[in-house]
Amino acid sequence: MRDFSQDHRWLSLNTATIRKQRGVEVPLDRIVDQCAERGIRAISPWRDQVAAVGLERIAGQLKAHDMRLSGYCRGGFFPAPDAAGLKAALDDNRRAIDEAKTLDAPCLVLVVGALPGALDGRALYKDIGRARGEVRDGIAASLDYAREVGMPLAIEPLHPMQAADRACVNTLEHALDLCDELDPSRSGALGVALDIYHVWWDPKLEAQIARAGKERLLAYHVCDWRTPTRDLLSDRAMMGDGVVELRKIRGWVEAAGFEGYSEVEIFSTLDWWQRSGEETLDTCIERHRSVV
Ligand code: ZN
């Protein structure tokens, strides 16, 4: 297992972590500079943050800082109530793949979607089996293009509390079943983004990480699980402040062959998004070294 205690070479920052600083939205170019000032070598930005500043501008800035991506957030949201909606989702995923390519991302992270409309409080249908079928078909269709341009797709299983509105793939096992079905040769074109916030509780986690192996483990996201959790989406804790055995899980991931970045991804309306970006980044670096 790699020793993270001496430096933060393997820390990546998911830029949602400091998208709000002291409660105020901060543009991505500023976030990139803040990371560069601290020697952070990689980030994982969100599409809306990139679009707000401009894709080419961010690509140039990353190049100037010699900063890499650990992933690009995000594609997915495949299910829709009708054919036009399904096609619009595929078109949007194609654009996301192109953007990821421009930014030289190692993978496009997929939050696959669930019951269409549920995110807005009004599900347009209730058949989660149908949603799972549309997810499967959507990934299969997107994979053709992703292979063509060489952009791996990383399915991120989400905690079952988000099965209705964000992702109906809720365990690592389910994500890997999809990978085996759609990419049986383990070509590297399809894998998973393993986010400990979503999977830490899973009794099959260790075995499924071993099953995933190096070819399927495309990204590794860390934070911590706060008790009590006050919000299902945006109350993630800083590493070390919750109940997740981070080092044990990283041991499993590395034993399976993963050698990539440990990407800090913290959505925190009540806590970290109220603090300064400097304090949050400095704490991320310290905890990366001491507890991740
Ligand atoms: Zn994640």
Topology diagram in text:
Blueprint: E1 11-14, E2 20-21, E3 24-25, H1 28-37, E4 42-44, H2 47-53, H3 55-65, E5 68-69, E6 72-76, H4 83-102, E7 108-111, H5 128-149, E8 153-155, H6 172-182, E9 190-195, H7 196-199, H8 205-216, E10 217-222, H9 246-255, E11 262-264, H10 277-290
The protein binds zinc ion (ZN).
Outline of this structure?
The chain has helices spanning about 30-35, 45-55, 55-65, 85-100, 130-150, 170-180, 195-200, 205-215, 245-255, 275-290, and strands at about 10-15, 20, 25, 40-45, 70, 70-75, 110, 155, 190-195, 215-220, 260-265. It has about 290 residues and is α/β, with parallel strands linked by helices.
Overall geometry comes to globular
CATH topology: TIM Barrel
In the residues, how many domains can be counted? 1
Total count of helical runs of at least 4 residues: 10
Task: Describe the overall structure.
It is a single chain. The protein is an alpha/beta fold and 292 residues long. It has a single domain, classed as Divalent-metal-dependent TIM barrel enzymes (TIM Barrel), CATH 3.20.20.150. It has 10 helices and 11 strands. The strands form 2 sheets. Strands 5-4-1-11-10-9-8-7-6 form a 9-stranded parallel sheet. The protein has a two-stranded antiparallel sheet with strand order 2-3. Strand 6 (72-76), helix 4 and strand 7 form a beta-alpha-beta unit. The protein starts with 10 loop residues before the first strand and ends with a helix. The mean pLDDT is 98. It binds zinc ion. Residues 156, 193, 195, 221, 265 line the site of zinc ion.
